[in-house]
Amino acid sequence: MAHPFYTAEHEAFREQIRRFVAREIEPYATEWDEAEEFPRELYRKAAAIGLIGLGFPEEYGGIPGDRFMWIIATQELARHGAGGINASLKSHAIGAPPIVAAGSDELKARVLPGILAGEKISALAITEPGGGSDVASLRTTARRDGDHYVVKGEKTFITSGMRADYYTVAVRTGGEGAGGVSLLLIEREREGFARTPLKKMGWWASDTATLHFDNVRVPVANLIGPEGHGFRIIMRNFNHERLTMAAGCIAAARVCLDEATAYAKERVTFGKPLTQHQVIRHKLVDMAQKVAVSQAWLEMLAWRLEQGENPVAEICMLKNQSTQTLAFCASEGVQIFGGAGFMRGAKVERIYREVKVNAIGGGTEEIMKDLASRQLGF
Prior knowledge:
Blueprint: H1 8-25, H2 29-35, H3 41-48, H4 67-77, H5 83-89, H6 92-95, H7 97-102, H8 105-116, E1 122-125, E2 141-145, E3 148-159, E4 166-172, E5 181-187, E6 193-197, E7 208-219, E8 223-224, H9 230-266, E9 268-269, E10 272-273, H10 278-306, H11 312-337, H12 347-360, H13 365-375
Parallel strand pairs: 1-4
Antiparallel strand pairs: 2-3, 3-7, 4-5, 5-8, 6-7, 9-10
Helix pairs in contact: 1-4, 4-9, 9-10, 9-11, 9-12, 10-11, 11-12, 11-13
């Protein structure tokens, strides 16, 4: 029976991405995660099969694709079980859309082709050491000085923070609150711009840093959108980011299910495979149930977005549903593996360490509930 959301074109794309992951990432995922980096060449290879340009304008090297193409790309990439690789490989998906949406024609022509070809790396820099999810209260300032802005402040927890070439940075150009926030493109080589690498619980292969701006001079031509419109541009990005995170969490949960199932069929205890113990079969069923429910909700919301709807509350709830599904499946996966699940190298162990970053990044569970409650009129 035909799937209501995926066409033959979608499935051909899925097979292409699946082969790419099996050939270019899966054999090296553990090695790269342990090394806390992966080859820059991977960006070019991903761009060559359409992964980097997916959903971006064709005039700058992008390729057309609906949200279901994006779900496929996100979920197939999760198969190797090292979320940090994906986080940095796809940091352009949060760094470049504001440029597409609000950048000048000159700025787009200058930076987008290199990003979409995998030659340049794009990052988004919003979070500050004292700010977290409170974007409207950011303190990094950009003071106008002739045909430049002078930027002073810090950003932290920035994905691709060390290796990015272009940073889409939220700055304060005006007064307090959301209305004083603007966006600037800042190139890595600007004088006064420094970066400090960060060590993390999980996502080791993801390059994460604190950024330091010490009176960095940035041309006014690098302003993304009008002054004071930065907060609005940032908010436009969140639906897509949260849907993407949900897709990735569901796929990682499925990896835990698949790995635990395969292990339980082979591991023999008390004279029989783990799958012949009712308690283990029930764990696997609970995992499968949560994955199926989350995936169905994801696809329905993607369809509604394709129809022009804007179900903000449900996207927030889906993000929480997906991170909670991941937490459950990662925990149960490690439990089924037993001692082997506590050893480095097992996908379930690595994914278990990556649970919390998903429940925090892109809007914490608490922020998601608060936003959903307001949208629902509670």
